[in-house]
Every structure is written in C-alpha cells, then in structure tokens.
Amino acid sequence: QVQLVESGGESVQAGGSLKLSCTASGIAFSSHAMAWFRQAPGKEREFVSVISGSGRSTDYADSVKGRFTISRDNAKNTVFLQMNSLKREDTAVYYCAAVLYMSSRVDRIRASDKYSFWGQGTQVTVSS
Q1: What is the 3-state secondary structure (H, E, C) of 28-97?
Q2: Residue 43, Cα to own-chain centre: how many angstroms?
Q3: Which of 16, 51, 57, 125 is most buried as measured by Cβ atoms within 10 A of its Cβ?
Q4: Non-local CB neighbours of 66 within 8 Å, separated by 6+ positions
Q5: What is the pLDDT along the chain (128 residues), one digit of tens a residue?
Q6: How far apart are CA 99 and CA 38, in angstroms?
Q7: How many Cα atoms within 13 Å fall on the side-chain side of residue 97?
Q8: Measured between alpha carbons, how far is residue 12 from residues 31, 37, 84, 91, 112 in Å?
C-alpha cells in the first residue's frame, strides 16, 4: 500500500518561511520523481516543483522560482519543500505526488495527470 504523508503546513505571516515534508512508503522511493502541487480555494491544482529520483534535477513554477527549494533524502524516503519569502498568494493546500520516472527531464512531468500517487495535503496559510 502506497502512502504519501505531508506535514509542516501552518499559518505564517507574509515574508516568513516554512518547510514542508512528505514521507513516502510502499514505493521504490529513489525510482520516483517527487513533486509538489498546490490548490487554492476556487482554483485548479497547480504545479509547484518537482525533483528527480536522484535529486540532481529540479524544476519550478515561475511563481515560486527563487523563493522555494525542493530537495529529497532518499535514505529517509522524504521530499522537502523549503518556502521562503512567502506571499499571500502562496496560501493553498499543498500536495505531494509521486511517479515512477527514471529520466532527469523532470520539466516534462509538470502535469498533475502524470502522477500516480498523491498525499492528503497540508494547509499553508499566509497572512499579511
């Protein structure tokens, strides 16, 4: 049984930082690209960032580039999203997702329908 469990979401003031974590079980973690998506109220789920199985390749949405950093610890089956300089528009439920993917071209897997497994989400609220 595959499980992705996110944590770290909370309320924070604009300009602040948060670090999200997602721990996976039931998959060969290092063979899976891991991504973060988010969904704000009334909006569609959108791509945030993705990292290759090795951790050497990453990709970011333009809206978060330079502020967010994705990383992973394959020994702990965990992917992270460090979020700095948070803005009100970053408020959303953040989802972790996984797909079996061996290529370094993670820019090709931005679409949510590429992903096989999803977590339950963690709420991030940014207030001014």
Answers
A1: CHHHEEEEEEEECCCCCCEEEEEECCCCCCEEECCCCCCCEEEEEECCCCEEEEEECCCCHHHCEEEEEE
A2: 17
A3: 51
A4: none
A5: 999 999 999 999 999 999 999 999 999 999 999 999 999 999 999 999 999 999 999 999 999 999 999 999 999 999 999 999 999 999 999 999 999 999 999 999 999 999 999 999 999 999 98
A6: 17
A7: 23
A8: 34, 19, 11, 10, 27
CA-closest candidate to residue 37, choices 84, 87, 99: 99
Number of residues in the chain: 128
Tokens linked to 73: 């610890």
Q: Which two tokens stand for residue 119?
A: 């977590």
